[in-house]
Amino acid sequence: MTVRVMLISPAMNAALREARFDGDAPLDRSGRERARAAAGAVPEAGLALAGPSERCRETTAALGLAARARTEPALAGWDLARWAGRRLDEVAAAEPAQVAAWLGDPSAAPHGGESLHDLVGRTGRWLDSLGGPDAPRTSFLAVAEAAVVRAAVVHGLRLPAEAFWRLDVAPLTLTGLSGRSGRWNVGLGRPLTAPPVGRASRRVAAPADRPAD
Q: What is the average pLDDT score of the chain?
């Protein structure tokens, strides 16, 4: 059975502006306003989900999905343990060897949390669990941290884990995957843009909606 999965990266917050490692920080004012403005561009789906971080939950609410979105623990951001909330340049200055290992070895976890392999594996297991014979839906919409979106693309396209570092996911962009376990097509992120003022609001079609071979 072909499944469509649409992943929306959350809106901007101060931690992202300051190049800090993922922490459970709320949206800033600009991010909240941009998410509200994009609400009319959110596509329809059989089931709406949200990562458990405050940033994901606030984005979900600003997009008008809070009433029907279910929190999904498998979409939690990358667990960077003691590095969470710290600036990358600060950590690199204090722990250069550890940061080099983290960037160069997908199995390394010098921060004490998840390795890159762990993140991709966790995200991949969630992705492949969708659309099984007992699944109640064939389309899913999820607000998920950018690292989770990147991990989903790595898993879906069977890329080497190192490709994760070459993928950029901007705030409030939609990345679509369609297919099934072991065979995914990917529609790379596009900005969520609300319909022009004066036009009737409508849900837009999502990318990556062609069936997998």
A: 87
